[in-house]
Amino acid sequence: MGFTAMRTETRRQDKVSVRRIVLGFTVALCLLIPVYASALQDTSPQGPAVENEAEFAEIRVRLSEGRSVFLENRGRPYRINGTLTFARNASLRGAIGTVLISEGDGAAFDVPPGATHVAIENITFRQNGRSRTLGAVRAGNFRLTGGGAVDAGTLVFSNARNGRVERARFENGVAANAIAITNGSSGIAIEGNEFERNAGFGIQIDNGANGNDISNNWTRANGIELVGIRYNAFGNVIAYNRAEGTGDNGISVTGDRNVVLGNRVSGNALNGIAIYGDENTVMGNVAIGNGQNLNPQSPLHNPQDTSVYAGILANGAFGGGGRNNVIVGNIIADDQTQPTQLRCVMVGQGYGRWKAATDYTARRFIYADGEIYQTENAGTSGTLAPSGEGVVTDGRIAWTHIRTLAGNGRPSGNMIANNQTAGCDHAPARAETSGQP
């Protein structure tokens, strides 16, 4: 073979080798990078994204196997029917602005126990179905970044550890709450999110949840509190949030030993910050112009309301004792022409006592012989005061025992000092109950 022929053959072999190398590299790369959701991309110039069931099934499989899926933003929503179940290390990511509509009746996604280190990024969930649950997170180290939810139900952390939600927007007029942290969940950080026009709480913490951090979130309009901690949660931090325009208090804490630090609460319907629990610390907050239920010029105005509202309220209610809280170093003011935040710091009257032959609304808390009870259903009380633990009866109404509260059921032992106040009156030792039981 001549030199020219040898050179030609060598080049041919080199080209074949290069092709093989490129092909091998491409196959390896495809095994490593996330699958792209061609299954859900738009196929019609007019309609929404259309699901190809076979390809979409592959996406479900990848998430259930702990792999990654990426959704391109094609300008129209993706649609799913059924719950996406994540396994350990799985991730669902999208380009900024990606919208995913869940059309089933169940949750949009589920992170079961053991599915740690799941990530969702830049996905805004919407829902056409009837589910009131956006997603159930029951594992550790879950992270949701960007995106959020619009009318897609509640994001529920249940017995979860060390999760994080950041830089997302929640607007859920159909859901009770935007985020619920419950069943002993701890180490959950909700930081830097926007909550607008949710039907209930922006964030609710209950049922033994503890050690969670709620910081730098804000709302300009929400159904009730931006943050609410129920009587059976403890040791959480609510710091540097901004709550204005809510349909209730800006922030409420009924649990014990929580810290409320550096928040700004203004223009809310009822009190700025309401402390119904025990041994909480409320420090460095700013409460301005709350009590908008009393303002005829406000969209929150309630002409039937004759209560008195405060920048900060301490009161035993909703299962809490309202005792031994520290309320120091806060700024409390009302500079409206007609003030509505009539008290700076107010101590309430505590619980109403159980009475015989009395009409009670559903979920009403009462005090009876050193115990707090709650009824789930409305009715007229019987003749014997409720007594004992568990579910008890007064002869006509069934009452659930909440806790023991020694003494007379009134809030006491609160330290209120070094607050800067203007435009509101200092509360008497016992003040109006602000509509609480």
UniProtKB/TrEMBL annotation:
SMART domains: PbH1. InterPro entries: PbH1, Pectin_lyas_fold, Pectin_lyase_fold/virulence. SUPFAM superfamilies: Pectin lyase-like. This is Right-handed parallel beta-helix repeat-containing protein. It comes from Ferranicluibacter rubi.
